[in-house]
């Protein structure tokens, strides 16, 4: 899942990004509304975690722009105000969810994951394919009943492949969904991660390489 965190409190923004990356999400971070609009115009995000009170361009205007563009991106709006009227106003702007500060990180993560599931064709919370069961919320993976431990990027790649439901996913698409914008697109990071993932999933192999196209399960 690709997430953009937009928050002018840099310590909070960086802390949220670090936490979400540990949950196997690809996260970009910006600290004002103008930078948010720039990133949204370049990258495809599943979810934008958007502070409402932003410098340069207000969070309300960023939200309006996402709605105006007809993007499938979901918006989780953050604010220091917990008033019901403010929450209602934020939702009426086009935000998909609203979370007042301070918040529990576990709740933020759950809300981001719930919104991420709504950006694509609805799928069950627990993904199952080829003997693999993947639970994004619990960060658990089982193959034929045996639990498998994966690093965050390996988990992210497997989740993208599972969500594709047998369709071929290109290396570029995996890079887009599982890594942030600081990753060099000319590295072999996708190929190496897939190789490690295959080894950890065991025999017989379930990730198929489609020459010249990508990978599928």
UniProtKB/TrEMBL annotation:
<dbReference type="InterPro" id="IPR011006">
    <property type="entry name" value="CheY-like_superfamily"/>
</dbReference>
<dbReference type="InterPro" id="IPR036388">
    <property type="entry name" value="WH-like_DNA-bd_sf"/>
</dbReference>
<keyword id="KW-0597">Phosphoprotein</keyword>
<dbReference type="InterPro" id="IPR001789">
    <property type="entry name" value="Sig_transdc_resp-reg_receiver"/>
</dbReference>
<feature type="DNA-binding region" description="OmpR/PhoB-type">
    <location>
        <begin position="124"/>
        <end position="217"/>
    </location>
</feature>
<dbReference type="InterPro" id="IPR001867">
    <property type="entry name" value="OmpR/PhoB-type_DNA-bd"/>
</dbReference>
<dbReference type="InterPro" id="IPR039420">
    <property type="entry name" value="WalR-like"/>
</dbReference>
<feature type="modified residue" description="4-aspartylphosphate">
    <location>
        <position position="51"/>
    </location>
</feature>
<feature type="domain" description="Response regulatory">
    <location>
        <begin position="2"/>
        <end position="116"/>
    </location>
</feature>
<feature type="domain" description="OmpR/PhoB-type">
    <location>
        <begin position="124"/>
        <end position="217"/>
    </location>
</feature>
<keyword id="KW-0238">DNA-binding</keyword>
<dbReference type="Pfam" id="PF00486">
    <property type="entry name" value="Trans_reg_C"/>
</dbReference>
<protein>
    <submittedName>
        <fullName>Response regulator transcription factor</fullName>
    </submittedName>
</protein>
<dbReference type="Pfam" id="PF00072">
    <property type="entry name" value="Response_reg"/>
</dbReference>
């Amino acid at each position: 899942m690709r997430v953009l965190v937009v928050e002018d409190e840099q310590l909070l923004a960086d802390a949220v990004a670090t936490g979400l990356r540990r949950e196997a999400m690809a996260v970009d971070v910006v600290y004002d509304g103008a930078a948010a609009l720039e990133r949204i115009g370049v990258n495809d995000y599943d979810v934008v975690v958007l502070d409402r009170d932003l410098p340069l361009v207000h969070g309300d205007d960023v939200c309006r722009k996402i709605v105006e563009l007809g993007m499938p991106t979901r918006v989780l709006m953050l604010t220091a105000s917990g008033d019901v009227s403010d929450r209602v106003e934020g939702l009426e702007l086009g935000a998909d969810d609203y979370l007042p500060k301070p918040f529990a990180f576990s709740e933020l993560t759950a809300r981001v994951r719930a919104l991420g599931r709504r950006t694509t064709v609805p799928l069950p919370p627990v993904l199952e394919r080829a003997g693999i069961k993947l639970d994004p919320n619990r960060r658990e993976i089982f193959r034929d009943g045996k639990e498998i431990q994966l690093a965050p990027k390996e988990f992210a790649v497997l989740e993208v492949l599972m969500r594709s439901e047998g369709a071929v996913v290109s290396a570029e698409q995996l890079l887009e969904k599982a890594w942030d914008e600081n990753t060099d697109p000319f590295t072999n990071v996708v190929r190496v991660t897939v190789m490690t993932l295959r080894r950890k999933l065991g025999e017989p192999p379930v990730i198929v390489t489609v020459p010249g196209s990508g990978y599928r399960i």
